[in-house]
Amino acid sequence: MKVSESIINNLLIEVDTLTYRLRSIKLSFQTTSNDRLKERLIYEKKSIFERVNEINKTAFYLNKSGNEKISFSSLLLEKSRRTLKEISTESNLFFI
């Protein structure tokens, strides 16, 4: 199966964007005292986690179907894993 590198590149860009948004949410959560905003930030963090998890599953499938050891799909898989790890290590921050 031949995988389009442009699709993988778009997913890489999306993971980067979601990672930066996650860091922005973290800073906003720490600086605000508004409970409704905190609830919205928690909801957005969950949405980001779900999307990165979907990308991770897709990257795993693409990496598994390829026969190359180094590829864009393996880079996507590693980036999504690191982002998921970052989300999970910071999950205790988001308690009201």
Describe this structure in words.
It is elongated and about 50 Å long. The protein has helices spanning 5-31, 35-65, 72-89. The chain has 96 residues and is mainly alpha-helical.
Architecture blueprint of SSEs:
Blueprint: H1 5-31, H2 35-65, H3 72-89
Give a quick account of the main beta sheet: strands, pairing sense, barrel closure: none
**DSSP helix fraction:** over 70%
Tell me how many strands there are.
Answer: 0
Q: Which residues form runs of ≥5 with pLDDT under 50?
A: none
Structural class: mainly alpha
Strand content: under 5%
Helix segment tally: 3
- Structural Rg: 15 Å
Please outline what is shown here.
The protein is mainly alpha-helical and 96 residues long. 79% of the residues lie in helices and 0% in strands.
Key descriptive features of the protein:
mainly alpha; single chain; 96 residues; elongated; 3 helices
